[in-house]
Amino acid sequence: MKLWMLRLGFLPLVAADFGNWSLVLLEEAVQTRGAACLDGSPAGYWIEHGWGSGAKRWIIHFQGGGWCISYEDCLARSKTSLGSSLNFTAEKSKTLEYSDGGVHGYLSNQPEVNPDFYNWNKVFALYCDGSSRNSEVEGPVVVGQKEVLYFRGHRILMATMESLMETMGQGTGLATDLIVGGCSAGGLTVWLHLDYIRRLMPSSVRVVGLPQCGLFMDQPDYQGLEYFTPLYAHIFDMMGMIRSPSLDPGCLDKYSEEPWHCFMAQYVMPFVQTPYFAVNSFYDSERNLKDIMVKNVSQSAGSHSYFLYSCVSHCGYLNHDDGWRRLVVNGQSLRGAISAWYFHERIFQGAQVQEMPDENPTCHPYGIEIVV
Ligand SMILES: *[C@@H]1O[C@H](CO)[C@@H](O)[C@H](O)[C@H]1NC(C)=O
Ligand SMILES: *[C@@H]1O[C@H](CO)[C@@H](O)[C@H](O)[C@H]1NC(C)=O
Ligand SMILES: CC(=O)N[C@H]1CO[C@H](CO)[C@@H](O)[C@@H]1O
Question: In the chain, how many domains are there?
Fold first, then answer.
C-alpha cells in the first residue's frame, strides 16, 4: 500500500514540546491476549492526561497508515514503526508532530486552537497491525524460511480499550465522554469498530465517532480502475478478518456471501448506530468520485453528521491547527460544526461539491504537512 505524503514542504520553525505525552506499551497483553504488532512486539499508545473540566473526558485517535496487502508486504512493514513498536520511543516527536497531522487541531492542548477539547485526556493509538485493527489469525504465520508474522489487529483493539478503561477508572473515576477519532486506515478503524467500542464502554459514558477520510469507495476511480475492492477482498481473507468479533453483525448478515464488504465503510455505514460525525475530502486520494460519495454518505446518514469538502487533502484538517479553524463548508467551519454537534446536538450535513479541487478559498493556502 502506498503511503500518502501530501504537499510536503513546510517544516515548523520551532520544535514542538510533547513533554506531557507518555508512551504506554501493552506488554502484558502480548502474553495474556496475544495482542502483538506484525513482528510480535507489544502494541501501544501515546497519552496526554486531561485536567480541569477535561479530567474525565477522553479522545482516542487511531493512527492511520494504509494496509499491507501480501505476506511479503506485511513482512516489510513489520520492520518499520507501522508494524513494530521497536522504535516507538525514538520516534516520539516525529509521530506526534506529523502522523496524520500529529497532535494538533482537535488533539491540540492549546485553548486558542482547541477551545472545546484542549484539556481532555488524549490518546494517540499507534498503528502496527496493517489491518485497521481487524485481523485475527490464531497462530503466527511463517513467511519464507524463518520469518514470523502476527495478524492480531482485533486483539490490539481489545488490549488498547482494556488499558484505557483501567486508566479511566484510576484517580479521576469513571470517564463521562469518549470521542473515537482516526484518519485514513484509522478513519476506517472508527467506521468498523465504533459500535463495538460503544458496547465495551459502560453505558454512562457518552461515546461518539469522528472518522476522517476512512471512506474508500467501492467504485471504479476517475480512470475507470477498480482499486480498493479487489485489495480489500484479498486482505480480508489473508488476515482472517471474518473471525474479528468487532465486525458489524448486521452487515455480515446482509453480505454473508461476500463478507469483505464489511471491511468497507460505505457498506458498514448504514448499520452504525453510535452517533458519528464523518469528515471526508472528495480529493483525498484522487480515487473517489465525489457525486457517489455524497449520495452514499447522505443516504446512510439519517441523523448523523458529515462534513465533505473539496480540498486536496487526505488526513490533515482535523489534526491541523490552522486547517481545522479555517476550513468552511456551507458557512460553517469544521471546528465550529463539530463543536455545535457535540455540545448542542446540532446535526451538520454539509457537502461542498465543486468541480475543481481547492476551489474553496478556505482550503489551506500553503499545504499541510502530514505523513500517513
Ligand atoms: C502540559 O500540561 C500543562 C497543564 O497540565 C499545560 O499548562 C502545559 O502547557 C502543557 N505543556 C505542553 C508542552 O503542552
Ligand atoms: C528502527 O530504527 C532504526 C534506525 O533508524 C532502523 O534501522 C530500523 O529499521 C528501525 N526498525 C523498526 C522496526 O522500526
Ligand atoms: C446508500 C447508497 O447510496 N449506497 C450505495 C453506495 O455505493 C454502492 C456502490 O456504488 C451502491 O451499491 C450503494 O447502493
Answer: 1
